[in-house]
TrEMBL record:
Residue stretches spanning the membrane: 30-56, 77-100
Polar residues compositional bias, start-end: 130-140
Chain segments annotated as coiled-coil in the UniProt record: none
Record's keyword annotation contains Transmembrane: yes
Pfam families: OATP
Protein name as it appears in the record: Uncharacterized protein
Alphabetical GO biological process terms: sodium-independent organic anion transport
Region described as Disordered: 124-146
Gene Ontology MF terms: sodium-independent organic anion transmembrane transporter activity
Amino acid sequence: MCFVCYRIVKKDERPFALAFQSFSVNLLDVIAFVIPGFIPAPVFIGALIDSTCILWDEPCGKRGACLLYDIASFRHLTYGVGFGVLVLVLACKVTLWYLIRDIKFDDGDVGQIMPMDVTVDKESAKDNDAASSGKTSETFETVDIC
């Protein structure tokens, strides 16, 4: 997402856009993952498994461990939850694609080398060349890198 933000925002507004995007993503992470994270996965999965129990052990009048599970409903529940999560992820991806399908990217300055003037001091370059290779070179000029 960072690259999308970088490509569709004007050059002078990019720092603010990246900061806002970072803040938004961190806020969504807290809302989507940290807060629901207080209900641990083992408790959730345990409740799903316990929902398929047919016969409970009741020592001392309290509900204990499950003695017999309904295998068919256990199988359907296990694969159903996995399939449901996959469908939810697919729906999110299709929705994201639908929302960003009309975005036009400005490829004007992506992958371009910025022009830069490189100047070399003749005396210091001559000394460096003579010291490193034993030869002196007389041709030095300003190079425009594009």
